[in-house]
Amino acid sequence: GAVVSQHPSWVICKSGTSVKIECRSLDFQATTMFWYRQFPKQSLMLMATSNEGSKATYEQGVEKDKFLINHASLTLSTLTVTSAHPEDSSFYICSALRETQYFGPGTRLLVL
Amino acid sequence: AQSVTQLDSHVSVSEGTPVLLRCNYSSSYSPSLFWYVQHPNKGLQLLLKYTSAATLVKGINGFEAEFKKSETSFHLTKPSAHMSDAAEYFCVVSERSSGSARQLTFGSGTQLTVLP
């Protein structure tokens, strides 16, 4: 149990476009999900905490208008990278909270 | 405030020899501690966790870690390395934040290389 999926696993897009990443808890309900980003050979950095039915809480330095988070149901949170630029290229990982955080497999975003 | 220090960015061992990945933490409250493994281009897999029960924690794939409060350490060990253990390992600390959800703070990671 406690499986978290992400879709897509890979995405390549042109600069200026928006990209949506989905995070789903497959076999449990999660009122709280987290979004992280990871640059090559670096650790995970928390971007925001996503709460079902309310606004996300963003970490300092993360632009909420650029990284839109929606947690519309107890099993789905989405991260939309708006007007993506090459510097947004990264590995984005979500997690869903049950008694601990269970991580998705990650989404690699490449912005050309 | 909480923080995690992984003392080695890269560890290299021969197959069949012991593994030691070092981790020190700092926390204002009684922490929960975790070790995660990440294979290339993959998400994180939980190896083991300490949540104030037994100080010696056994995890998956033969790994274990010992919580030593006096040393503020939570080192990860395995008696005999396997080639498939080559990966990035993260030590993680968690304490209850102002909200109900526990925030995780990640160490910088240790890249484990296993030589044939």
Kindly list the characteristics that best describe this protein.
heterodimer, A: 112 residues, mainly beta, seven-stranded mixed sheet, four-stranded antiparallel sheet, 11 strands, 0% helix, B: 116 residues, six-stranded mixed sheet, 12 strands, globular
What does this entry look like structurally?
The complex is a heterodimer of chains A (112) and B (116). Chain A has strands spanning 4-7, 10-13, 19-25, 32-38, 44-51, 57-58, 67-73, 76-81, 90-97, 101-103, 107-111. Chain A is mainly beta and 112 residues long. In chain A, strands 2, 4, 5, 6, 9, 10 and 11 form a seven-stranded mixed sheet that branches. In chain A, a hairpin with a 5-residue loop joins strand 4 (32-38) and strand 5 (44-51). The termini of chain B are far apart. In chain B, strands 2, 5, 6, 10, 11 and 12 form a six-stranded mixed sheet that branches. A four-stranded antiparallel sheet of chain B has the order 3-9-8-7, with no helix packed on it. Chain B has a two-stranded antiparallel ribbon with strand order 1-4. Chain B has no helices and twelve strands. Chain B is mainly β.
